[in-house]
Amino acid sequence: MSWDWFESIGKPPFVAAPMVDASELAWRLLCRRHGAKLCYTPMFHSNVFTKDPKYRKDSMQTCAEDRPLIVQFCGNNPEVMAAAAKMVEGQCDAIDINLGCPQSIAKRGKYGSFLQDEWKLLQDIVKAMSEAVSIPITCKVRIFEDIEKSVRYALMLQEAGCKLLTVHGRTREQKGPLTGIASWKHIKAVREAVSVPMFANGNIQCLEDVYRCIDYTKVDGVMSAEGILTNPALFEGINPVSWDMALEYLDLVEQFPCPTSYMRGHLFKMFHKIFTFEENNEARQLLATGQNIHDFRKVCVIIKDKYKDYHEGNLNFDDCENITRQGYNLILPPWICQPYVRMSPEAHTQKMESLSKVQVENNNKRDYEDTDGNCISRKKMKKLRKIMRRPVKDDQQNGRNGEICVNATCPNPLGGKCVYQLCKKCCRNKCFEEDLDCTGHRILVHTRREMAKKYAHQNNEMEHIQCNNESEN
């Protein structure tokens, strides 16, 4: 069944990974336009998914173009995981179990890679989900340091009912600044042992890496996460202009809206090299504080206007005198989508040791100053930075639109959706005095009074009928 199903979805070699707050529908469609043959949803928490209709509605967004699609869940309860799988069975081609998340939140919630030692529980989860739905159950895992244990782990999941395996070639401890290099040697060993279709994940920065990985490990497809965040056209084998990709993504967001935090995150990734230059601090600040899609489009236009002539060859970037050249040693120009190269774990450790040494020499204290040069606490500094990131705009001083309540004696800001252009207090008074409703403030005085009258009339009729019956008797 595993291979028949895999062939039915086209044996996809290029896979866009599940990423929390980054694999929303608009992003998946962008990746599909540029080479991705299979996409995963972000990780959904199975317990919340089954209990919260709003979370379920907001999370599970898809469309006809969004296939083949695999929905990913995390959790540690077989019954709840099975129930969640049942809810999305008709909207996807398979359901994945997240056994790879290494973050501290996964440790607290006991899911992701922190279940990789609970083999009996994992067997129960895979079995329960497989029996609950008619589509395949897949698993995304991380490796153990020991190759042999990694192989036994994969075989256990396969025997439990897993129909496709994605192996991330890093251990649970390899994350953040200690990410390091993924082990294709582990992935190759697992591929040789299992008989179900398998994807590899790790060390993918360009299309050439994809083919090298397939050639070495013999997997059936390659999944990319960080690589496609900085270059959504990675699987297309090109390095496009960053503002073109960003604007195309924002066009899709217009059709399939998503939270502003998702948009901001994607644009920061695509413009990550541009923002290393001090001359682009204004655009970076606008992106950091932008509150809607129009602000984000403005960021794209600013960057495009600044670098378009260099990209088209009308100006020579190397001859530009007003651009800081420090640190510019890229193979590609900074406005081109390109890989993000992490600092090695060894370099990070050395850096942290150097910082610790400096702190010891300074009595283990770091001085913080406000804009006037006064010494302040670290807590106060964090608060000031937060305010600077999200400054209050002029039109926000008196409410959402800078307007106040139409009641001449009231200084309060008006409610953004108030039918009568009043603040909530004045609106409530008006509705009570004039027997009105305000849907914007959800004040339903008239409606509730009418319901009370209706029930009172019904009660009177019931009492009248009851009295007649008693008198007849």
From TrEMBL:
Its EC number is 1.3.1.88. Gene3D superfamilies: Aldolase class I. CDD domains: DUS_like_FMN. Residues 16-256 form the DUS-like FMN-binding domain. Pfam families: Dus. Keywords: Flavoprotein, FMN, NAD, NADP, Oxidoreductase, tRNA processing. It catalyses: 5,6-dihydrouridine(16) in tRNA + NAD(+) = uridine(16) in tRNA + NADH + H(+); 5,6-dihydrouridine(16) in tRNA + NADP(+) = uridine(16) in tRNA + NADPH + H(+); 5,6-dihydrouridine(17) in tRNA + NADP(+) = uridine(17) in tRNA + NADPH + H(+); 5,6-dihydrouridine(17) in tRNA + NAD(+) = uridine(17) in tRNA + NADH + H(+). Its cofactor is FMN. Belongs to the Dus family. Dus1 subfamily. This is tRNA-dihydrouridine(16/17) synthase [NAD(P)(+)].
